[in-house]
Amino acid sequence: MKKLLVLVAGSFALLPYTPAFAAWQEIGFNDQVTIYVDIATIKKVEDDNIQILSMLDLKTPGKDPKTNKALSSIIGLNEFACGKQAYRPLEVKLFTGNKGAGTLISEEKLSNSPYEKITSGSWVVGVYKTACGIK
After folding, report:
1. 24 with 101: CB under 8 angstroms?
2. Which of 5-14, 89-98, 126-135 has the highest mean pLDDT?
3. What structural domains does the chain harbor?
4. Which of the four pLDDT bands, split at 50, 70 and 90, describes residue 13?
5. Where residue 21 falls among pLDDT bands split at 50, 70, 90?
């Protein structure tokens, strides 16, 4: 679980908004998380790059590695380079409650983060397919 949280915390990002107003669509799940996206936030930013708001909703609470507080959802904004099958996190918010509810634990802007290759089997595959498939 710790590895998942470190990966997710370093990979997720989000737009400034109020989570309660997002129109979350479930795009996948496993034993640990349910993955959602907000289709209404898809934005083409340049060439083949797309931004989308997404959320990981943890089925069993984890802990934020920085604050050690209980963590149940992570909402973020990622930018996808669709033709290169790569992404980068731009912003991230961590919440104590599921689906962005509860207390905001932390938020971080990651606007200078480098692009990473999308690896098969990772949570980001579904978000990538959704964002880049809609363009």
Report:
1. no
2. 89-98
3. 2-134 (2.40.128.710)
4. very low
5. low
Give, as one character, the DSSP assignment of residue 111: T
Q: Which long-range contacts (CB under 8 A, 24 or more apart) does 29-37 make?
A: 31/59, 32/1, 32/4, 32/58, 32/59, 32/60, 33/4, 33/57, 33/58, 33/59, 33/123, 34/59, 35/123, 35/126, 35/127, 36/99, 37/126, 37/127, 37/130, 37/131
Question: Coil, helix or strand for 134?
Answer: helix
- Please give the Cα distance from 13 to 68 (Å, whole number): 19
Q: Which of 39, 114, 40 is nearest to 81 (CA)?
A: 114
Sign of CA dihedral 65, 68, 72, 76: negative
> In which band, very low, low, confident or very high, does the pLDDT at 112 lie, cut at 50, 70 and 90?
confident
